Each structure stands twice: as structure tokens, then as C-alpha cells.
């Protein structure tokens, strides 16, 4: 399978690239990035690095380099508090994600073999909330933003059932690999997941699909 990976210079995206390289069923990884990648990744024959400065738009020259992609693993975003302000958080998390999905639906999906659908895997978060008016006590901006993205992607999938599928994974939290005994206990009891495990799970969904669009933390850790 040929996949697009975003967020490759980040925690989850970097793990996705490394696990894609290790997975024999992934034949090519198109890495969309604004920043340089580590040299060992750039030199790998599976990896095609595509510099993309504006994730709000997908001009023909970018789409041409993505030709043949069958799916996307999206790992751009984060907690709202990690951004300078809420407007920036929404731009990066909501606008960028939906701009990519729309571009891939209109330009990449139609070029796949008949009957094959483009698969989009979104790294969301536990407690993502679709209802934008619901009163929330904790992490309200992050949960609403994640929920808005999920709903937007599912709406696109519903409107393009013949060419586009979407799944959203909701980790309870993401920890480093080999994070020590206390973190392992936290993982097992709280739905947290090691970053490599998360990356493998997202790739498995891209390759094989999953019965539910929204994959909650308790199901995610079992993949």
C-alpha cells in the first residue's frame, strides 16, 4: 500500500514513518512536511519526502507527486494549548485536515482502481466532542476541535461513499516506547498507548480497515 504521512517531524508522525518503513505491506510512504526529516529516514528507499509549505492548499504540482497514494495517516495537530492562540489551533487542526481530505477526494481517489476507496486515518484524542455547544469541564477547546475534525471527515465520507473512507483513533494519551514501569502501569489502566503501538495500529487500520469509524482508546490498545 502507498500512503501519505503528515506530521513526520512530530512525536506520532515520526513513529508512523518508521513503522511504515518496517511494515512489508507498505510499499511507499509519501511524507508531506515543511521541515527536514532525519537523514536515516530521507535515505530510505520507501520514503518520498515532499516539501509542502502551505497545508491549506494542494496545487497540481503537489498532487502530482502524490499520484498513486491509496491512503493518508494524518498526525498534524495537538492540544489547543500548544498553539499561540485558539485561532491558530483551529487553522492547523481543522482547516488543514479538511483541506487535505477534500483534495484527496477530488484528485487522488478517482485515480484508484475501480471499487477501491481512499482511506484517511486521523489521529484524534480521547473524549473528542462533536457537539460544539456542549458544556465541557476539561480540555474543552481541544475536545471540541478534535470533534469538529472527526465530524467534518465523517461528513465527507458520507458524501463520497464510493471513493472515501475515514477512521479516527482516540488514544487516551501517548507515551514514549520503553517508558518505564510506572508508565506501563498507566498504559494498562488508563487507555494510554506507546507511540510505536499507536503507529502500528493506525497502519493496520489503513491496510485492513476497521468495523467502526471511531476507534476508542480501549479498542485501540488491542490492535
Describe this structure in words.
- With about 220 residues, this protein is an alpha/beta fold.
- Helix content is about 40%, strand content about 15%.
- It has eight helices and nine strands.
- It has helices spanning about 10-20, 40, 60-65, 85-110, 140-160, 180-190, 195-210, 215-220, and strands at about 1-5, 30-35, 45-50, 70-75, 120-125, 165-170, 175, 195, 215.
- It has a seven-stranded parallel beta sheet, with helices on both faces. The chain has a two-stranded parallel sheet with strand order 7-8.
- Strand 1 (about 1-5), helix 1 (about 10-20) and strand 2 (about 30-35) form a beta-alpha-beta unit.
- Helix 1 (about 10-20) packs across helix 7 (about 195-210) and helix 4 runs parallel beside helix 5.
- The longest helix is centred in the middle third of the chain and has 23 residues, at about 85-110.
- The radius of gyration is 17 Å and the shape is globular.
- The mean pLDDT is about 90.
